[in-house]
Structure formats: C-alpha cells, structure tokens
Amino acid sequence: MNKLQPSADEAIRDIPDGATLMVGGFGLAGNPENLIAALNRKGAKNLVVISNNCGTTELGLGVLLKSRQIRKMIASYVGENKEFERQYLSGELEVELNPQGTLAERIRAAAAGIGGFYTATGVGTQIAEGKETRVIAGREYLLELPLKADFSLVKAWKADTWGNLVFRKTARNFNPVMCGAAGCTIVEAEEIVPVGELPPDSIHVPSIYVQRLVLGKDYQKPIERRTLRPR
User: Mean pLDDT, to the nearest integer, of 191-208?
Assistant: First the structure.
C-alpha cells in the first residue's frame, strides 16, 4: 500500500508522447509544480492537457506550452498567457473551451462513472454546436459527456503513505475532482505522514483514487498578479 515514489521524475516515468493528462490548479494556485517540471524534463510531446487554464507565459503549464509539448488544451480560461494566444492564432495549438462549471462536472462525471449529464449552460452559443439537446420542463439543455484522461497530476497539501489526501484553501480547486478521472492519478504533496496521522474526517480524497505519491519540494507558489492595498 505504500505508493511513495523516490522522485517526481520517477513518478511520471511512463507518461508517453500523445498522452491525455489532467492537471490540477486554478491560475497558478495548486499547480503540481514538481510534476510539471519533471514532465518538462522528460520531454513528452503531443500532449492533450485538461486543466482550468494553461498557467502564464512563463509559469505553470505555460512551461510545457513554451517547450511545444502540448498539442491540445481543454480548458475554461486562457488569459494571462501570451504564448498560448500566439500558438492558437497561428494554428499551432488546438483549443477546446468549456464553461468552468461544465469542465468541473465533466471531470467529476468521469470519476463517478456517469455517462453524461444535461446542463443549460452554453445553450444558444458556439458551445452548443454539434451537441445533443433536450427540453426538460420547458427549458433547453445540452448533453455533456465525461472527460477522462490517461494520467492526472494533482497537488495536495498533506498525504499519508497510502495516498489519503488533504487539500488547503484555494489550492483545493480542481485537484480533488481529478482524482479518479484518469487511469493513473499521480499526486505530489507538501507533507507526507504515516498512515493514521490524518484525522479521518479531514480527508478530502481517499487513497483508493491515488496510484502514485511523491513528496514535493522547493515550492515557489507564484501569484499571477500581486495586488497590494494602498497605504
């Protein structure tokens, strides 16, 4: 049951070219920094990445975009990244935009084994093009299908060696819902403790959804835009 890996590089060792990945984070909060850096070092190419956004021009998933490792982004928000804009407008990057709640629910549906769900979000927009619709109680809805991945890269605050996970504040974001939505969930945690040290009621994701675990280090925890209150 000990899922601990010796390094981030070993944890992502078998991610191949062309893999579909889910990567946690909201902006730069809760990014699996060590796993992203390891994937950058590995050089896997033609990746399809499912994430709320693609970091900034120089940070987060923007590192993989800048090194041309990402073929397609499935995301909700694509601002703060000039290289993303450049690659998309030049036809170098394929992009699928999802409303943020729809993106989260498509991921959750995959983890829960749900075959699809109806939502009113996106009706009458480009999001609805080519999708099945249904009128329920007089209102039109779109059928959205689950999003699945080969690997999920997740950042947790604390974990035990079995892979029970605790997240902290804003860094929780998309990370928990991505556990279980991929064939292999790889987690980096700021602190790893022996089994039994995490209070059962504090656990956000149970260990059954985690396959690999690595202790993160040297966190930068950057902020996209630092705003200070006037004195």
Answer: 97
